[in-house]
Amino acid sequence: MLAAMATYHCPQDGTLAETTSLTWCCPVCRGPWDLDFESAGPLRPDALSGRVNSLWRYEEVLPLSSPVTTLGEGRTPLVPLTGTVSAKLDFLMPTLSFKDRGAVMLAELARRLSPGRVVADSSGNAGTAVAAYCARAALPCTVYVPEGTSPKKTEQIRAHGARLEIVPGGRESTAMAARAAADEPGTFYASHVFNPYFLHGTKTYVYELWEDLGGRLPDAIAVPVGNGTLLLGAALATAELHAQGLIDTRPALVAVQAEAVSPLAAAFHAGAQDLLEAPAGPASPTLAEGIAIPRPPRARAILAAVRESGGTFLTVTEDQIRSAQLDLAARGFYVETTGVACWAAVGGWTDRSVVVPLCGAGLKTGLAG
What we know:
Layout: E1 7-9, E2 16-18, E3 34-36, E4 78-80, E5 85-88, H1 100-113, E6 117-121, H2 125-137, E7 141-146, H3 151-159, E8 163-167, H4 171-182, E9 187-189, H5 197-202, H6 204-212, E10 220-224, H7 229-243, E11 252-258, H8 263-269, H9 299-309, E12 312-316, H10 318-330, H11 341-346, E13 354-357
């Protein structure tokens, strides 16, 4: 069974839909869904001892329970890098990226809905995660990726038994191809952007921080932002923890983008509530391919979440990304280029505590050229 009283709702026009349907977007505005569900909470810290050592230990605040598709995801280590900066090692997930947190939710939801097939689109990490969890759930899966996606990621997708569709063009062309396929009857669109179950998976990142830090959170949480799934999950978790009285204040959310593709940073610093008008065309090349998203569908929500937290947007150059990857490797952490963006942005901070995610393993992309 799905969570009690779970309903999709559109934050733009208020349209509602049942979570038992295969609808992947609001039929009125074609925008992404949010999720309303009746939590089994509140979460009691003293009840966590002895629970399963995965993200499913926070069952009171999750929209699904008793998963079949789990691969033991979550509960990744938190280690200090400097006196004020710590890193959460999400590259130690089963498919070597943080996307497992949301992918397990999508695959578990799909398993319960029994679609004819699952489709996903990705620049690599979300696709490998969805492919792996669909394999675990014995669901047929097709993953759409842009041409130029790392061969190591496409190899991993194929290894999990998914069908791979390589789309000419960039990330937006790939998304359009997947969404056309998602409109076919009997298809579940495992979209890490449009389906809010994914965000309720990524929010466990912050619940783990809260537990590992003894019931508190750092002054700031830095996250790389393309489509914003980790940032929006973090915003969900900090709001829930605050509402439950488990934290006194909410940390600032620091969003990091590559300077080459930084539409959200530009909008934020211009004081805009949504993306600024920009000429259509391909995104500039960047080593941080996982966050090279020129028009994220949840842009308004991302900008609002950062502002409400008292946070900000930072950008990093390609040279900073290269240097950060080598610096982390010298410290023992081999992280892919997208995953080093936050270290490049806040690694020198000394005035407040901050956690950065090391989101994906370096084996997925290799060293920056």
